[in-house]
């Protein structure tokens, strides 16, 4: 049975660098007998066997076997901070693209402004980017967003970059340590949404530097720790980006 | 002698014209994650066939009338490039591509855990860049690897394989001449880990014994191709061999 070993950032080192027990599984692969173990995310049980349903790294923790997927779609949860883009505007609400399987709905009652019925477009139009929070996700996967809260606002400047959802925790690091290090390295304001969208604001060189670092996460994140990427990036000067 | 006219498809010693054994597949190579813009992608070469598959989503299903409240819909678009055969193919959808898109979508829906993404859509694009024979099988194999690459949860991957009958002999993995002048063709989508069949079509006639032998060949080939599929994903993300 595969077991994830090593500290943060080491777990996905490729080519057996952190131990032979690392195990990449593919959909349909029989992992082992299900007796005495619980099936976690990415695992189904059939005929007393555990079967992988996703491509990813096998993990066993507290007698629960699960998969850390290499790629995954964003599944919104209540309380998530997301960087969303306006996809459609109606008289009294906005449909927001939250980089997931379902659009989010922002009613005018949860917008930070007093919006008259029919005047939603005057406040936000298609393509505008906002920082919002997921207020509610019901059993039918209807996602309601809110912009009422500290720091939630329309993002009028800066740029948005995407990173794989499964790499968000790695980009942040423990207590946002890596994210803070990145902010200081490029001298930019950076907000990481739970939906894999990252808002960056600063001078052009800083933004270019941060975008390059995040693109490297998207490209090599499955095999390289973000701390390593950051260290490599810090060797380069901001102007080189 | 069967099939059309006097076209000879087997050598006098019983071997096939391209030198393969009766139960031997054409060379297969698979590469995963070749398109950066797609959530998942794969390129499969199978003999002279070349297929590229790309997966986008899950995403909001538009138009809304196609949404299913309890599951995702899989929207497959199979297309042969105009330059994929020696005769230019008129670009755009035709009866054949619609049919293959439909059977591929239904096969994939049987393995993808569609109930995880209600009201959404998973778009699968299959482009045949070069066609020899058995493009629907190559397309479904490519789509399967691309779905796995995209992180879409699935019960199993589907392997597309075909066997058929030429000169009253059952053979595995028909090439162009065997497909055109043979007596029967049996493309199948197999779930290699469970042994289930996700789709099955048959063109021509096979006796029960011939059918059983053809399916035996298909299952054997599915295991071989599945190993290549797994190896492609490992090479992409693990940097090593399977």
How is the secondary structure organized here?
The complex is a heterodimer of chains A (241) and B (242).
Chain A (H helix, E strand, L loop, with lengths): L23 E2 L4 E4 L4 E2 L3 E4 L2 E4 L3 E6 L2 E6 L11 E9 L3 E5 L6 E4 L12 H4 L5 E9 L5 E4 L6 E3 L3 E4 L5 H5 L4 H10 L2 E4 L4 E5 L2 H17 L5 H10 L6
Parallel strand pairs in A: 3-7, 10-12
Antiparallel strand pairs in A: 1-6, 2-5, 4-5, 6-7, 8-9, 8-11, 9-10, 11-12, 11-13, 14-16, 15-16
Helix pairs in contact in A: 3-4, 3-5, 4-5
Chain B lengths: L27 E5 L7 E7 L2 E12 L12 E8 L14 H15 L10 E11 L4 H15 L9 E8 L2 E4 L3 H6 L2 E8 L4 E5 L2 E2 L3 H30 L5
Parallel strand pairs in B: 4-5
Antiparallel strand pairs in B: 1-2, 2-3, 3-5, 6-7, 6-8, 8-9, 8-10
Describe this protein with a few key phrases:
heterodimer, A: 241 residues, alpha+beta, OB fold (Dihydrolipoamide Acetyltransferase, E2P), 3 domains, five-stranded mixed β-barrel, 5 helices, disordered N terminus, B: alpha+beta, five-stranded mixed sheet, five-stranded antiparallel sheet, globular
Percent helix of chain A, as a range, is 10-25%
- SSE pattern of chain A, N- to C-terminal: EEEEEEEEEEHEEEEHHEEHH
**What is the name of the CATH architecture of the largest domain in chain A?**
2-Layer Sandwich
Q: What proportion strand of chain B?
A: 25-35%
Count of extended strands of chain B: 10
Average of per-residue pLDDT values of chain A: 84
What's the short version?
Chain A is α+β, with helices and mostly antiparallel strands.
Q: How would you portray this structure in words?
A:
The complex is a heterodimer of chains A (241) and B (242). With 241 residues, chain A is an alpha+beta fold. Chain A has three domains: 9-16 and 164-238, K Homology domain, type 1 (Ribosomal Protein S8, Chain: A, domain 1); 22-69, RNA polymerase II/Efflux pump adaptor protein, barrel-sandwich hybrid domain (OB fold (Dihydrolipoamide Acetyltransferase, E2P), Beta Barrel); 81-155, Beta Barrel (OB fold (Dihydrolipoamide Acetyltransferase, E2P)). Chain A has helices spanning 120-123, 168-172, 177-186, 204-220, 226-235, and strands spanning 24-25, 30-33, 38-39, 43-46, 49-52, 56-61, 64-69, 81-89, 93-97, 104-107, 129-137, 143-146, 153-155, 159-162, 189-192, 197-201. Chain A has a five-stranded mixed β-barrel with strand order 8-9-10-12-11. In chain A, α3 packs across α4 (204-220) and α4 runs antiparallel to α5 (226-235). Chain B has 242 residues and is an alpha+beta fold. In chain B, the strands form two sheets. Chain B has a five-stranded mixed beta sheet. In chain B, strands 6, 7, 8, 9 and 10 form a five-stranded antiparallel beta sheet that branches. In chain B, α2 packs parallel to α4 (208-237). Chain B is globular, with a radius of gyration of 18 Å. The relative contact order of chain B is 0.18. The A-B interface holds A 14-16, 24, 26-30, 42, 44, 51, 53-56, 69-73, 100-103, 140-141, 222-223 and B 39-40, 57-60, 69, 72, 111, 113, 117-120, 147-157, 191-194, 229-230, 233-234, 237-240.
């Amino acid at each position: 049975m595969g077991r994830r070993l090593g500290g943060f950032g080491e777990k996905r080192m490729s080519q057996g660098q952190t131990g032979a027990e690392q195990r990449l599984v593919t959909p349909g692969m029989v992992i082992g007998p299900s007796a005495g173990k619980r099936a976690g995310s990415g695992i189904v049980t059939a005929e007393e066997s555990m079967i992988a349903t996703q491509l990813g790294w096998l993990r066993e923790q507290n007698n629960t076997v699960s998969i850390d997927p290499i790629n995954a779609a964003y599944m919104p949860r209540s309380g998530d901070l997301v960087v969303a883009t306006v996809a459609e505007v109606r008289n009294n609400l906005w449909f927001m693209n939250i980089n997931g399987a379902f659009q989010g709905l922002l009613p005018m009652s949860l917008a930070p402004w007093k919006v008259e019925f029919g005047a939603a477009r005057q406040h936000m139009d298609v393509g505008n980017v906002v920082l919002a929070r997921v207020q509610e996700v019901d059993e039918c996967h209807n996602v309601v967003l809110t912009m009422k809260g500290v720091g939630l606002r329309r993002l009028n400047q800066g740029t948005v970059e995407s990173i794989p959802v499964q790499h968000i925790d790695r980009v942040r690091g423990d207590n946002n340590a890596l994210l803070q290090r990145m902010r200081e390295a490029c001298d930019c304001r950076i907000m990481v949404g739970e939906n894999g969208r990252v808002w960056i604001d600063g001078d052009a060189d800083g933004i270019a530097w941060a975008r390059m670092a995040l693109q490297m996460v998207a490209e090599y994140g499955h095999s390289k720790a973000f701390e390593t990427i950051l260290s490599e990036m810090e060797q380069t000067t901001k102007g080189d980006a | 002698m069967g099939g059309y006219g006097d076209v000879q498809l087997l050598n006098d010693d019983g071997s096939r014209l391209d030198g393969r054994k009766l139960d031997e597949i054409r060379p297969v190579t698979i590469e995963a994650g070749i398109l950066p813009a797609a959530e998942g992608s794969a390129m499969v070469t199978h003999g002279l066939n070349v297929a590229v598959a790309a997966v986008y989503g899950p995403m909001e299903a538009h138009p809304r009338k196609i949404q299913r409240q309890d599951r995702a819909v899989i929207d497959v678009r199979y297309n042969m490039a105009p330059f994929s055969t020696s005769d230019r193919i008129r670009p755009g959808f035709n009866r054949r591509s619609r049919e293959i898109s439909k059977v591929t979508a239904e096969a994939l829906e049987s393995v993808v855990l569609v109930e995880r993404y209600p009201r959404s859509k998973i778009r699968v694009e299959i482009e045949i860049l070069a066609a020899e024979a058995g493009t629907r099988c190559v397309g479904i194999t490519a789509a399967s690897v691309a779905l796995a690459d995209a992180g879409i949860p699935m019960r199993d991957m589907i392997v597309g394989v075909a066997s058929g009958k030429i000169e009253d002999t059952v053979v595995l993995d028909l090439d162009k001449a065997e497909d055109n002048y043979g007596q029967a063709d049996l493309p199948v989508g197999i779930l290699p880990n469970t042994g289930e069949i996700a789709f099955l079509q048959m063109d021509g006639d096979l006796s029960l014994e011939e059918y059983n032998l053809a399916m035996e060949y298909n299952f054997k080939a599915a295991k071989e191709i599945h190993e290549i599929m797994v190896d492609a994903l490992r090479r992409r993300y693990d940097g090593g061999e399977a």
